[in-house]
Write a structure and sequence with these properties.
It is a single chain. The chain is α/β, with parallel strands linked by helices. The chain folds into two domains: 120 residues, Aspartate Aminotransferase, domain 1; 223 residues, Aspartate Aminotransferase, domain 2 (3-Layer(aba) Sandwich), CATH 3.40.640. It has twelve helices and twelve strands. The protein has a seven-stranded mixed sheet with strand order 2-8-7-6-5-3-4. Strand 3, helix 4 and strand 4 form a beta-alpha-beta unit. The chain starts with 29 loop residues before the first strand and ends with a helix. Bound molecules: pyridoxal-5'-phosphate.
Length: 364
Amino acid sequence: MTTPQPQPGILDIAPYKGGESKIAGTEKVIKLSSNEGAFGPSPAAVKALEQAALNIHRYPDGHAPDLRAAIAGRYGLEPSRIVLGAGSDEIINMLCQAYVGPGDEVLYSEHGFLMYGISAMAAGATPVKAPETDLKADVDNLLAAVTDNTRLVFIANPNNPTGTFLTADELARLRDGLRDDILLIVDAAYAEYVTGTPTYTDGMDMVRGADNVVMTRTFSKMYGLGGARLGWAYMPEAVAAVLNRVRGPFNVSVPAQMAGLAAFNDTAFTDMCRAHNDEWLKRTQDALRQLGLFVPDGVGNFVLVRFKDVATAEAADEHLKSNGIIARRVAGYGLPDCLRITIGKADEMEAVIAALRDFMGADT
Ligand SMILES: Cc1ncc(COP(=O)(O)O)c(C=O)c1O
């Protein structure tokens, strides 16, 4: 007897596993496993969600004119070149669905964000990874991996889980080395957190002047709306015209649109989040380096920590768990000897540092 079969390649996808949120036997956990904003949503966003509930029987306006206008206004963009998604994951998916199929290749860096490979395979395409150098995307290696079949190139800037980024010059060199028919997607999910780094770019300027560059952003990190599912992207008109054909007509819910607009406008809240991250990213990196651990120069809201081997990383994870702290194992990213730890509130980071100090056997 035959049973319904998915498209070739679908069953080869290793399903995405989100960060853990529970520790058996521990009621109050410190969840630092999914790079969610340390302070949750802005109170203004919560109020907007309450308002949204009153009209939840109405379909959303799928074009989300108010939110797109607000984003366009702040950054000086054309609203017609902005497309929203149910998280930036959906935009990554739509790009793969629309631009690749069997025989096509989707290129990204060795430790790049997992969804690029998953979305590529879901569209029947082949994921291709280019080696990194010192846990950072390498432009030469990416360009060397381009073939006649390459259609999309994804770069997370900064990347999850490494936190490292390509400079504006490096990104320009990558774009200049790609054929005009290859779409370069700069995934700037953590751009809101990058401060005091003049060489950094979120890719927005590059999109303005090119026909083959897209920048994606999310409301899941600093805006604290991961559960609402909201992301956006800035792209050439022609790409927007394509995505608006494959996009579900109501892909972004009324609560997501209303909470997103309120969160976007609450700049006092995001300023507070950014200042907190600035302080605790550096404090955490410094403290863990003092323990002799390797921590790359990340610029997002998380640190990647490398232990001396896989067993030590596993033991460190267990030790953190025994202290009620959930970090993220990143073996799925090819980094089994590392843990990724989101920057949480001050007391949470103090608990992380104390637990790792204890684990590493430091005296103070
Ligand atoms: C680099 C990167 N891109 C995209 C996403 C997806 O974010 P969302 O779909 O919640 O907008 C994440 C989430 O962790 C990420 O780390």
